[in-house]
């Protein structure tokens, strides 16, 4: 294996076309194909499916690419440190459940570490996808919660994927509602107060298990349920339909507007919100900086 071969593989994956990749790399198509075949033989892998429409990455190819990209990024850092060569774009990716504090820390990281060229990804996504992203190095860090209900499943899934969990803070359950909702008039809410109103929750895709739900108390019965994919839609429905969602209670008015408020929910439960990392890989400088910003932003929560 050589760094040149890794660069070839990454370029093919990015372009999804052997001819275009060869043009970008300034080599002949047969030479590029031969180099990839040699790498596949060396490791006993099939990196790409080839068809008349182009190439697609195999499942084992996706895993290999995550390591290849990391090695090429390390090469860029070494070149920048010892030769002064430009490193190109600063790249960073976070996968998270739908938390405004995670976005706030992401924005601060970009302001302070983005540089002149950057490619930052903020993936608010499904719980299992967060774990899979970090396990396969598509994201440097993931943010999710665990509690007494899902803890054993989350711990096992993280262990199976060789990931570690570090606690940021522990939050008591709250309810997000519109500031004009009848629910907002109460200082504290009980589960029975929520019964007449639509419950909103985030879709969890193929892993739609209660254990991977983003909202705690997801097993409680609700006559009216609305399932959404993104935070903007959820907030719009909270306002437009007098709905509610159960959450950590942390909200950033600058990012999310003044129309959503949080009210404590009177139940015996909690959310242990933290970040996940590959257990065997030392966090990059950007990852460490992002974690520090998460810690600073959440330092004022009741658990801290």
Write the layout of secondary structure elements.
Layout: H1 3-15, H2 18-25, H3 29-43, E1 48-51, E2 54-57, H4 59-83, E3 90-96, H5 100-113, E4 118-124, H6 127-135, E5 141-146, H7 151-160, E6 163-171, E7 174-178, H8 191-194, E8 199-202, E9 225-228, H9 231-241, E10 245-247, H10 253-256, E11 260-264, E12 271-278, H11 285-297
Parallel strand pairs: 3-4, 3-5, 8-9
Antiparallel strand pairs: 1-2, 5-12, 6-12, 7-10, 7-11
Helix pairs in contact: 1-2, 1-4, 2-3, 5-11
Write structural notes for this entry.
41% of the residues lie in helices and 22% in strands. It is of the alpha/beta class and 304 residues long. The chain has two domains: 3-83, Orthogonal Bundle (Arc Repressor Mutant, subunit A), CATH 1.10.10; 90-304, D-Maltodextrin-Binding Protein, domain 2 (3-Layer(aba) Sandwich). The termini are far apart.
Helical content (DSSP H or I, runs of 4+): 40-55%
| Class derived from helix and strand content | alpha/beta
Strand order of the largest sheet: 4-3-5-12-6
Number of domains: 2
CATH topology of the largest domain: D-Maltodextrin-Binding Protein, domain 2
Weakly predicted, low-confidence segments = none
Total count of strands: 12
The largest sheet is: 5 strands, mixed
Mean pLDDT: 87
What is the CA-based Rg, rounded?
22 Å
Report the β-strand fraction as a percent range: 15-25%
Q: Name the overall outline.
A: elongated
Distance between the termini: 48 Å
CATH architecture of the largest domain: 3-Layer(aba) Sandwich
